[in-house]
Amino acid sequence: MLNRYPLWKNLLILFVVLFGTLYALPNLFGEDYAVQISGTRGGEVTVDTVAQVERSLERAGIPIRGLTFENGQMLVRVDSDEDQLNARELLVQELGSQYVVALNLAPATPAWLAAIGGEPLKLGLDLRGGVHFLMEVDMEEALSKIREQMVTTVQDRLREERLRYQRVQADGNSIVVTMRNEADFQSAIGVLRNQYQGYDFRTDSSSRTITLAMTDQFLQETRSNAIDQNITILRNRVDELGVAEPLIQRQGADRIVVELPGVQDTARAKEILGATATLEFRFVDTDNDVQDAIAGRVPFGSRLFDQRGGGQVLLENRVILTGDHIVNASVGYDESNRPQVNISLDSAGGRMMTQATRGNIGKPMATVFIEFLATGETTDEGRIAFDRVEEVVSVATIQAVLGSNFRITGVGSVQDAQNLALLLRAGALIAPIQIVEERTVGPSLGAENVEAGMKAIIGAFILVLLFMGIYYRKFGLVANLALMTNLVMIIGVMSMIPGATLTMPGIAGIVLTVGMAVDANVIIFERIREELVEGRSPQQAIARGYENAFSTIADANITTLITALILFAVGTGSIKGFAVTLAIGIVTSMFTAIAGTRAVINLTWGRNKRLKELSI
Fold it and tell me: Following DSSP, what letter does each residue of 61-124 receive, concatenated?
């Protein structure tokens, strides 16, 4: 038949519409006002804390709508934003500085919807609230780490070639190598010149020294790489925090902007993002007495380190391995059910660990935890001041040759082990960072933006509905039905996509899509009118109208879709948000405007063989 869809096609269209509607439903239930309570610096909320919170809110007359307690955190749901603010103020005074009490919004999705993966659409920082950090990278520390690595690699290279050196040391941005004799000096020139071609290479025969100086280009690339690598590592850490659609980008020469929508626990975010933690593995110096070192007689080639839990231990200066080779870290438990961190190394790290331990079975090896903590002060040069905190978290005797997988014990509490594993798994920052600016956007402020955005969508929607209904009559009502379905499907698709986030530019994309969606129906209806003017029957006019309009609609929407994809590929932050909603809206509008309206028109007018006129 001319204007009939087969049953399977009608059922398929109905299924797609119902599926999109189902996953858009969670957005109708909204979110509950909530207060989130968590411990600081590894602390945990206990059952006693839960009881204390319940008693405090009950005395203050603040009704509790719901309470959940899991993973060392507590979420208290209340009835209104006023109760939320009052509860936070009360609990901050009651619990003190040991806990972080933050505003939050908790989804009110029914359990049956949540069971099939139904979740409300995630909102961006401008709508949902969250935290904004401006971070500054300590470039001097980045260069210092590179100099230390250079000294170690030069020493290892000379040892491999069996060339005897007197000393290898850093001097500013240069590495100075002093050889023992003339023969080794001449051989070292060839070896080092080939390996370090990107450096200014200078030699002095009289003192048998070779100087490898970092060029200006090398320093510039190093600073740029430090920023890029820190951004990558921060993204990994944000993924660990479970933040959807974060914004992490460079600002200027040495600063990074981080925006985390939906995060109200600023203490947890700062602890994870700002921590510059790594590990070093060193041999314990068993040839000298640690008491002599504590008394001030530290032997050459060794250093005293503080041990976690008290005491000091004497370690060799040589670093067996650094945390740069760690590819994975997870929390486990030892034979005594105490927390431990299971370490996995890359292939290079596994070889280094094997070589180091093969000839040292029975010798104790220490795990040194290193963290840079900002002091809040600046140096004379205007840079951020950091304290380098080093402590031995574990000393264990090597029982067998170690490879790419091993474990470290004595890491403290379960929370300490989880934090350490997270930091090592996400990677150690190339250089310390300092949070120089911090802003928290509360959910109540985001609600104003949501309200303004919804007014824009509803306003545009109503005007389009009125125009289509008046100008195209009954066919206009079909277009309006398709337009409403399109809006529901956009929300449903975005709710289904993991990580998709709605921002103010995204709302602008939806408003634009509303206009573009109705364009397709305008083109189709005008084609139908033209066919009726040319004397064709209503059934023929409907069929030819859709057929002739399809190519025009497809061309216009495909070019717009390509533009949206390019915006998503090259854009950042808000531009990507606009591109995502625009691209989804184009696809859903093509479906509803062409397949959806055709199905409704076929069912309404296509069965009437004696149809004489159309309400268009």
Answer: T---SEEEEETTEEEEEESSHHHHHHHHHHHHHHHGGGEEEEEEEEE---HHHHHTT--PPEE-
